[in-house]
Design brief:
single chain; Chitobiase, domain 2; TIM Barrel; Jelly Rolls; 3 domains; eight-stranded parallel barrel; seven-stranded mixed beta sheet; 14 helices; globular; Glyco_hydro_20_cat; signal; glycosidase
């Protein structure tokens, strides 16, 4: 269905169904029983928090209400809502002012599918002048506000001029405790403002975890394992947490400009928490540890520079010292120590290390740990059942159904369903976004995927939705090809739709609730909700000046500030340029918050990476340039060869075996025209949005 078709379908629902049932949304709501009447929104609407519960917990009901207020203004384009009120009086249907009332009821009980209690459920009651959201804890009320915002957004996206909600009663709660996404930040640098925006976006679809894989290295076997080869010393490896100045760990961070300070990380973590998303940090050891061994080569396993030698006396104390430094940064009750793809011949050493780190971290911080599922062929030792296993593949004996039956708690990250790779994958193994066909009907029997499904072909490897030790699922986006393979926004493009469908499948499941979404319903409502998701602007949407024109400057300029930071694709940026004859390669043509376009070789820069078009602008005349961008590519049409597009590419090293060419998508550098010492002339600048 096209976007226009989707909006038309939604408009039909708004005109013909509204007032009787809730609109389809992502994720679907468990139950709603309508009654007579509607609750109509207006700019006079007030948000009231029950006074005695306002500051309970952290984030508190009042803090969630403050974020909700801002999101409501964003969704409805209201200039400014009234300040939040505190009251112990529950509004009734005769209230003169439409009121949204947020409250707690500790007697309310909500259950996950496995029967465990959850504090993420909520009830809502709607009458003509009051919309009441209650939960057993503030987090449940927060998810109730997401439902409210989505119902409003669907109506507005369907063409409604005003927003109203059907009167009635509803209840909702998640099927699984863990509903997360993992981002490989060890091989690709991301700043904390982007990570915070990802949390805000994910929260809209009731995803509650961001797993940050914060240390790793590129994998090139020739560099890592070649005889007499010391290429591993210079192979890209990163550790993203920046120790304070003078710390004994200072040498652990080779790239200070690609690391998070404590304040940056904690601010981002707070942003995520204030949107219901816990940040699960991962420091991957004893495999994937090249960055540690580049710092302290004596810790290295002989012949395996990316493995730690666990029998070396200083190895485990060093790893403990790393956790000592950074554990106080982390607010979530769990952390991941990675612990995947280690030498199976050293199974006993591996198991002892994992168990020792579990006990140590628990003693130091009260936190529990997670590890990636790994085959441990030991007949004498076993991983502690206090540790959660994050299943990702079926090597050897790592069978999740068996693990759960043996008493292990399991998170489903099975790669057959839940793995993505930045820009491309080796041999097309992983899709660019979660495979919609697979998730909606790729499970055995033609049913859709849900966290209880681990295999698309073998039902014996799957379990029931109420399996007691099944905690939920996390899908993963790896960045195996490093920083230059993708921009941060390209990573968002891979995650955006994936997060939405994953939100439905991990909150409601597949074929579990009668109210669950169909694929057609999802396809219809997703574009509207993606465009409406509040609190961030990862789509880099701007309001055109007129028609599809963002701006146009028909004059001649050396430098000009436009006031528009960045514009997301699809767009066309056209201009004429004559470089300075004294230094034709000097300076920057356009600057934005996400990218720059330099004069030299018409080079785009994004997140510190450079991508040259390889075209040299002549210095003695004007050249006409049109830049066209979509989410898949960016190309230029230049007057000397119009009709023959020139694409910006990146070159990716695939496992050290071959080089792959990939198209690049850039946001328009729209903030400034002419910068960084540009002394030429730019004229007839025009930036338009494409359909």
């Amino acid at each position: 269905m096209t976007l226009l078709g989707s909006i038309g379908f939604l408009a039909f629902l708004v005109l013909h169904v509204w007032g009787a049932v809730l609109e389809p949304q992502i994720p679907s709501v468990a139950s709603f029983t309508p009654s007579s009447g509607t609750f109509k929104l207006s700019p006079s609407v007030r948000i009231v928090v029950e006074a005695k519960y306002a500051k309970l917990c952290s984030p508190s009901l009042l803090e969630y209400a403050s974020t909700f207020r801002a999101d409501l203004e964003d969704t409805l384009s209201y200039a400014a809502l009234a300040p939040i009120e505190l009251s112990s009086v529950v509004p009734d249907s005769l209230s003169a002012i439409p009121t949204i009332y947020l409250s707690l009821d500790p007697s309310l009980e909500y259950k996950l599918y496995n029967g465990r209690s959850t504090d993420e459920g909520y009830n809502f009651q709607v009458s003509p002048n009051a919309y009441i959201i209650k939960g057993s804890a503030p987090l449940g009320v927060w998810w109730g506000t997401r439902t409210f915002l989505q119902q409003a957004a669907v109506q507005l996206g369907g063409g409604a001029k005003t927003v109203s909600f059907p009167a009635g009663k509803g209840s909702d709660s998640p099927g699984w405790e863990v509903r997360g996404f993992m981002l490989d930040a060890g091989r690709h640098w991301f700043d904390t403002s982007f990570l915070g925006d990802l949390c805000i976006y994910a929260s809209y679809f009731k995803i509650n975890e961001m797993h940050l894989h914060a240390s790793d290295n590129l994998w090139n076997p020739a560099f890592l394992y070649g005889d007499g080869n010391e290429g591993w010393k210079n192979l890209y490896a990163a550790f993203r947490f920046q120790p304070p100045a003078g710390s004994a760990l200072d040498g652990l961070v080779p790239r200070k400009n690609e690391s998070w300070t404590k304040q940056e990380f904690m601010d981002m973590q707070r942003t995520c928490a204030n949107h219901g998303v816990a940040v699960i940090p991962e420091v991957d050891t004893p495999g994937h540890s090249l960055v540690i061994n580049q710092w302290k080569p004596e810790l290295m396993e002989t012949g395996a520079p990316d493995h730690l030698n666990l029998s070396y006396p200083d190895t485990i104390p060093t790893i403990k010292s790393i956790w000592d430094e950074f554990l106080p940064w982390f607010s979530a009750p769990e952390v991941s120590i990675g612990a995947d793809e280690y030498d199976a011949a050293l199974a006993n050493d591996y198991i002892s290390f994992v168990n020792e780190m579990s006990s140590y971290i628990s003693t130091k911080s009260g936190k529990s740990i997670r590890i990636w599922g790994t085959n441990e062929p030991s007949t004498t030792r076993s991983v502690s059942k206090d540790i959660t296993i994050q299943h990702w593949d079926f090597p050897g004996d790592d069978i999740p159904v068996q693990l759960m039956s043996n008493g292990y708690r399991v998170i489903n990250s099975e790669q057959a369903f839940l793995y993505l790779d930045g820009k491309t994958s080796d041999g097309g193994q992983f899709p660019q976004e979660l495979d919609q066909d697979l998730l909606w009907s790729g499970a055995p029997g033609g049913k859709g995927w849900a966290p209880n499904v681990f295999s698309p072909t073998d039902p014996t490897n799957n379990t029931s939705v109420d399996a007691p030790n099944l905690r939920g699922a996390i899908f993963a986006l790896w960045n195996d090809w490093g920083n230059n393979a993708t921009t941060a926004l390209e990573v968002y493009y891979q995650l955006a739709r994936s997060m939405a469908v994953f939100g439905e499948k991990t909150w409601a499941g597949s074929d579990v609730r009668p109210s669950g979404l169909t694929r057609d319903q999802f396809d219809a409502v997703y574009p509207v909700l993606n465009a409406a998701a509040p609190g961030q602007n990862l789509n880099r949407v701007v309001k055109p000046k007129h028609g599809n024109v963002v701006y146009e400057y028909p004059g001649t300029y050396g430098s000009l500030n436009t006031g528009i930071p960045s514009v997301g694709p699809p767009y066309t940026l056209s201009f004429r340029v004559k470089p300075d004859s004294r230094d034709p390669n000097a300076g920057t043509l356009f600057v934005g918050t996400d990218s720059k376009l330099h004069v030299a070789n018409l080079t785009f820069e994004a997140a510190g990476q450079s991508y040259a078009l390889g075209y040299v602008l002549p210095k003695d005349r004007y050249t006409s340039v049109e830049i066209h961008a979509t989410r898949e590519y960016t190309y230029a049409l230049i007057d000397a060869d119009k009709g023959s597009p020139r694409y910006w590419h990146t070159l990716m090293d695939i496992w050290g075996e071959y080089m792959a060419l990939g198209n690049m998508s850039f946001a328009a550098p729209s903030w400034q025209i002419g910068a960084d010492g540009f002394a030429g002339v730019i004229e007839d600048v025009r930036l338009t949005l494409d359909a």
